[in-house]
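User: I'm putting together a teaching handout on how sequence relates to shape, and I'd like one worked example. Could you take Molybdopterin-guanine dinucleotide biosynthesis protein B from Albidiferax ferrireducens, show the sequence you're using, and then write out its predicted structure as tokens right after it?

Assistant: Happy to. First the sequence, then the structure tokens directly below it.
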Amino acid sequence: MKIFGVAGHSGMGKTTLLERLVPAIAARGLVVSLIKHSHKNIDIDRPGKDSYRLRESGCKEVLLLGNDRWALMHELRGAPEPSLDYLLDRMQHCDLVLVEGFKNGNFPKLEVWRESVGKPTLWPDWPGIVAIASDTLLAASAQATAPAQLDLADAASMVDFVLAHAATR
């Protein structure tokens, strides 16, 4: 299993980019999975549903199985967030796990950056950023020390880069 991350400030287009990369990687015959880290509270269940009621009753985990998919919900109940390694250990075997978030993790990452959003790059302050995908070039003063710069519109080149630089786990 290999791992590669996509990082960037909120609103930069990380998920939109991943929506383009996943099918392009899968078209090359690879099995792709994804871990998305959110700093918000998430809930894939709904109040009133049996699984919600049973989870709220105190279950540590609830596995919900339907006709098309299953989901395992694990309640932290005040425990710290698990590490990325812990989560990766729970993934089914695949060729590549893409990770959205976990900005502090020291694994290779592509930063999505759009000057128009008005926020600075995460690079060079965050570990693992090996390339910046953007719709504009970085300022000339940053270009000399910046990691690889990729065109956000060129999905094929980004897929080549991701596959060449993904870390073996």
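A couple of points you could highlight for students: The chain has five helices and nine strands. Strands lie at 2-7, 32-36, 61-65, 70-74, 96-100, 109-113, 129-134, 148-151, 167-168.
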